[in-house]
Write a structure and sequence with these properties.
Distance between the termini: 18 Å
CATH architecture: Beta Barrel
Number of helices: 0
Order of helices and strands: EEEEEEEEEE
CATH topology: Lipocalin
Structural class: mainly beta
Largest sheet: 10 strands, antiparallel, barrel
Helix content: under 10%
CATH class: Mainly Beta
Number of strands: 10
Strand order of the largest sheet: 1-2-3-4-5-6-7-8-9-10
Shape: globular
Radius of gyration: 15 Å
């Protein structure tokens, strides 16, 4: 399962001056502002020139600043998804929903601490039997973002991924 939920980016809160989007945003979403209005190109660690695995992700302000929308596609649309991130005032947590072209969806929560985003997701409808995903995102000093995820089936690790992203303003998210 390729859940490249780019929620997942590690942040430095002082980066907000570099944000591409300047519209209003709920205060709980402000730590994610540096990624809004940007497109990222990520290459999977196991990618090769013969068999490339490339993810394109676009972050956007949504719902008058009450949410953040992330769309992504792998290998020109062979797989993709869309996430909506929002602050859940009742739970006092950053929550999200992720819907995929593979037919499954996830619900998750994310925390931002010490320059990293950590997310945990519950998976519904995965053909591979994945039940949970744990993900971390870390923004590196060179401006790249490292995403690592672990897939679980009933608490046992069944796989993982590692993707290194760089900002790519001309890249396009594609759905078939």
């Amino acid at each position: 399962m390729k859940n490249t939920l780019i929620l997942t980016f590690a942040l430095t809160l002082n980066l907000s001056c570099f944000a591409a989007e300047t519209g209003t945003l709920d205060k709980e979403l402000e730590p994610l502002r540096p990624f809004i209005g940007k497109t990222w190109r990520g290459e999977f660690k196991n990618s090769t020139p013969e068999k490339p695995v490339i993810d394109i992700a676009r972050w956007e302000r949504a719902l008058n600043g009450k949410a953040i929308r992330v769309t992504h596609s792998i290998n020109d649309g062979t797989y993709g998804g869309e996430s909506i991130l929002r602050w859940d005032d009742e739970k006092k947590q950053l929550t999200y929903f992720y819907f995929t072209t593979a037919g499954f969806y996830t619900t998750g929560v994310m925390t931002i601490q010490d320059g990293k985003i950590t997310s945990t997701e519950k998976v519904t409808g995965s053909a591979e039997g994945t039940t949970d995903v744990r993900t971390t995102y870390e923004l590196r000093s060179d401006g790249s973002m490292l995403n690592k995820a672990e897939y679980l089936k009933n608490g046992a690790a069944t796989g993982s991924r590692e993707v290194l992203y760089k900002e790519a303003p001309d890249a396009k998210v594609t759905f078939k």
